[in-house]
Write a structure and sequence with these properties.
By secondary structure, the protein is mostly beta strands. 5% of the residues lie in helices and 62% in strands. The longest helix has 15 residues.
Length: 370
């Protein structure tokens, strides 16, 4: 009896674990997942999900070397709202419609740079708490119900060294979180824990900034609350290459163009050493930022995200954002709208499908220089 219970719990949790469907679990295709990757940062979202060369403490978890650009103690808070209007079509008839929305956990970070006397060198330390994957999914038909509520967050402790021209950053990551899954007959709960790191470097040549960062394949342990059984799952390796070109630097109203490519090694993702069979992908983010006045900033962006499970299924979208500076405060808002479409012969669940889903993210942020 105990063995059967453990088998049943293991089966549920292997479907519950976030990495078995990671990015698009808010959609109907991925009802066996626990969360989607979230960008809980108003500046990042406004710039098409550019995440590693932006003027934000969000870079702690993507490329901490960029923190070298800060000159004083700084703190930042971001809070987001996620909306999914889901439409799945089968034979040109609506199969189901799910209204999905949730508030994210807040992202909070603080960083303190120290300038070495009689030198251009700086060192810096900080701590940040960031959302990684979150979900509040509900799927209902006349005969079944499925809900998944979860969050996987990370504490990041960055250490940076260098100058404004060249710097190296290292961040220690600790993962934590929990979730629950419920269907017609039962509810299963569990906790998540793990650790890893991020390593990055930044190089500036006049008004051109280049960034390179690496996040290795990290392990997360999922522990079933019912039996105490533990399972191991991988976070995929991520190599991030980014470029920023600055314009009108001396005019008082500077502008910047951002290009970022993230290479995610999903083919190596395993659950308890069993291969997932997923595909490696490259995510592209483009962004533009312009200071309209000394106080106001306008942001625009575009992103392109292939689906790592189904070839030919792509999520792409447009974004915009706005920043307002007042003394030592900066208020930011980011908004993006994206679509995920697929039409093909590959079977999803039991039949061929046409997929049409739209997503909206709204993020609010505030930065304060102490």
């Amino acid at each position: 009896m105990k063995h059967k219970l453990q088998q049943k719990t293991r089966f549920i949790f292997l479907n519950l674990i976030f990495l078995t469907a990671y990015l698009y679990s808010s959609g109907y295709i991925y009802t066996n997942a626990i969360g989607q990757k979230v960008y809980n940062n108003a500046i990042s979202v406004g710039l098409g999900n550019n995440s590693s060369l932006i003027n934000s403490l969000f870079v702690m978890k993507t490329n901490p070397s960029v923190l070298i650009d800060n000159e004083q103690l700084i703190s930042e808070l971001n809070y987001g709202f996620y909306i999914v209007d889901e439409r799945i079509i089968e034979d040109k008839q609506p199969l189901t419609k799910n209204d999905y929305n949730f508030f994210s956990n807040p992202d909070l970070a603080i960083f303190y740079p120290i300038k070495i006397k009689n030198s251009s060198l700086k060192i810096g330390f900080g701590v940040g708490y960031f959302g990684e994957y979150e979900s509040n999914y509900s799927y209902k038909t006349s005969t079944s119900i499925y809900t998944s509520v979860s969050n996987l967050d990370s504490f990041v402790i960055p250490i940076i060294f260098g100058t404004n021209k060249f710097s190296i950053g290292f961040g220690i990551k600790n993962f934590l979180g929990g979730g629950s899954l419920q269907n017609n007959t039962q509810k299963t709960e569990g906790t998540y824990s793990g650790s890893g790191f991020v390593l990055g470097t930044k190089l500036r040549i006049v008004n051109t900034v280049m960034g390179l960062s690496f996040v290795p394949q990290n392990d997360v342990i999922v522990k079933a609350s019912l039996t105490g059984t533990e399972y191991k799952v991988n976070i995929p390796q991520n190599i991030n290459i980014a470029l920023k070109q600055e314009f009108d630097v001396d005019t008082g109203n500077p502008a910047g163009a951002f290009v970022e490519m993230s290479f995610l090694n999903y083919s190596e993702v395993k659950v308890n050493n069993i291969s997932s069979g997923y595909n490696d992908i490259m995510v592209l983010s483009l962004g533009l930022e312009k200071s309209l006045t000394e106080e106001t900033i306008l942001r625009l962006g575009f992103f392109y995200e292939p689906n790592y499970i189904i070839r030919g299924c792509v999520k792409s979208g447009l974004s915009t954002g706005f920043g307002y500076n007042k003394n030592n405060l900066q208020f930011n808002i980011g908004l993006n709208y994206s679509k995920e479409n697929y039409k093909g012969d590959e079977k999803i669940f039991s039949t061929k499908k046409v997929i049409d889903e739209s997503y909206t993210n709204i993020i609010f942020g505030i930065k304060y220089k102490l």
